[in-house]
Amino acid sequence: MVHCDIWGGYRTPSLCHANYFLTLVDDYSRTLWVYLIKQKSDASTNLVYFCNMVERQFGKKIKHLRCDNGGEFTSSQMKDFYGSQGIALETSCRYTPQQNGVVERKHRHLLEVARAIRFEANLPIKFWGECILTATYIINCVPSKILKNKTPYEVLLGKPPSYDHMRTFGCLAYYWNNTKGDKFEPRGKRGESVPFGNNNLSNQSQAHKVNEDEEWVRGGDIPPVMDGNQTHVHEAAQNHTLGPQDEEAMQQADNDEAPEPTNDPTHDQLENNEETDETSEPVTHQRGTRVRTQPQHLKDYAVKLSPSVDHANPSHNQANHTVHPLAHYISYENFSTNHKAFMSAIDSHDEPKSFKQASQDKRWQEDMQNEIKALEQNDTWTLEELPPGKKAIDSKWIYKVKHKPNGEVERYKARLIAKGYTQLEGVDYHDTFAPVAKLVTMRALLVLAVKRSWYTHQLDVNNAFLHGDLEEEVYMKVPQGFARENESRVCRLRKSIYGLKQASRNRYHKFTSSLMNLGYKQSVADPSLFIYKRGKVHVAALIYVDDVIIVGNDLDQIQDTKKELHQQFTIKDLGSLKYFLGIEVVQIKDGMVLSQRKYTLDILRDMGLEDPKQPHLEAAIRVVRYLKSTLGQGILLPKEGGTQLITYCDSDWMGCPFTRRSRTGYVLMFGGAPVSWKSKKQSVVSRSSAEAEYRAMAATVSEALWFRWLLTELDATQDSPTIMFCDNEAARHIANNLVFHERTKHVEMDCHFVRERVESKEILPTYIKSQSQLADLLTKPLGGPHLHNLLSKLNISNLHVST
Questions:
Q1: Residue 50 pLDDT > 80, yes or no?
Q2: Which end of the chain has fewer beta carbons closer than 10 Å to its terminal beta carbon, N or C?
Q3: What is the model's pTM?
Q4: Do residues 656 and 646 touch, judged by C-beta distance below 8 A?
């Protein structure tokens, strides 16, 4: 049986102008044949040729041919051929390539090998055909597990292949210069070896020829030193001649074939003269470029390599081979002293990849025992017999060595993880969702804390996922290394552990139920917010996984809450709020500042480690410069002023050049500070700027109504309508006018709820000039002066700049 298929067409023709290749795989020996073809119709001719070749060369006849429903295989002419040869045609169903899986998988194998050898040889893309043919030859000579570690070549021909003739694809090679008429012309020209350019398995002597007109005299595994503009074997030969340095390279590559170099001084003089003539050609002057040096903070990541120097041609000094050759390595001497010490400390404490490795180290044994002991003390499981029909999930150990900044080991951490991906939905778990705190809620809470001079504290719940109670009946195998001999029982999980699908949800329910037992009520607007009201005492707790913010006007109640929680969980009291979810919180005389200075520093510190090219650097340099200039910028929450909610909404019109959709932008100001903002492309195209602004108003009203409900729960009810500033008079009139306007009859009905909220006196649309529209910076790029003016009105200030 033979499996066949066609790959292509590829956008770039090969050297022989082929855009496709026909793949044929012998089912018995897994031998691979590939034919480069210009168009699909050529497959029929090659298939007939292949059938005749197999019959003549191997004395076998093809009985079955498996392919897809392509017309090149199922035409009437080909069906007549199959009938005359007695070949049974098997075609796959439409859109089911898996039925022809042998050749489909072989295509993937071919492309992976061909791609690798092309990258290694650093050849242009038009050499893809030669790469495919070479990959075919290599695959046929490599052992396969399917063939019991035999090669397809050996299974087909009955003898193992020889590898003596094989050379690296694209390596340095020379061919005879047959030019007549000039006795001083070099006898050899340099190029690249592109071997195995045929499907002849029985004759391996052709590997040293690219075509019949060029005979290769020497070759080896030495990579060529190529000019950046060199794209073809013939072009390579035109610019490189056989010189003394090349003879030395050839001699090192193949001492048996290389002739002995002459020591005649006259001969050396002639060669030197030839070298002088070649280097005296006019030099093309190029535009000077600034020399770029590696940043100081990247010195431990820069590899200093000595490029190969060709004095005869300066263009050869460029990096050869692939961008990151396998032969290049990072020398230990390139690291700084501190980095060497850190690397040595890390290398001396490898992290085990398996339990077998960890069990050979007493330190990991001790930490695993401590982990199991902690889980048993927490009543995480009980040992029971596995009920019939139940399946126990497996677990694994994760090992991590935590280091101090100087490289010393801080601790060894072994953690038991359940393989939750093996759980069955509806059997081992049901719901997995667990809400987390919204940043808008956090900012609103801190604004009230500043305005009312409340205390702000922070807690951290250690091993938060281990405290949730399991409602489902889940069984887990005894952890590896802790099962007794002939133990048939398994662990019946009573509490959640890391890795379970429902671990996060159970953790949330456990913690929230504890707060509610202490008298806290869950917020409707934000399920992660819990509020305690008792007389004049007001305390609020905001939960984000294992981070908790507690804000209130009574310090005793806050401390009581901490004590009660500590009795049920392992709580780490972090004191006053300083850092939460990547946001630094700084208390100042005039209020509080929220900034992401540390996060910005991390971005600046990591710049350059992804090996960006020149266009990327030029595009990103302005972004990095902006981050650098706004390093200490943050939101000022002022003490002075009221707690009125004011909104700004804006939109551009058809701002996206591809979809022509508009962009919505809005800002919610509470207590003189921005607490919520958004910039988002609208879902549909607007026919006018008024329509785009009206859609932006609908999004703003939705956010404003939710925020008003949140403030009501925080005892900051908004008695007056929320002012919504808009710089489009037409949109404002549409919101105020109850008449179904002609220009808005196609607008979605959910947008018209804006009129209802205006009529109910909850929202008050107000006109504002575009120069004072604070949401303007969320819809379009602005100039520097105008941008800084809007930032100052938004109470965005730089804490680290002296005033």
A1: yes
A2: C
A3: 0.51
A4: no
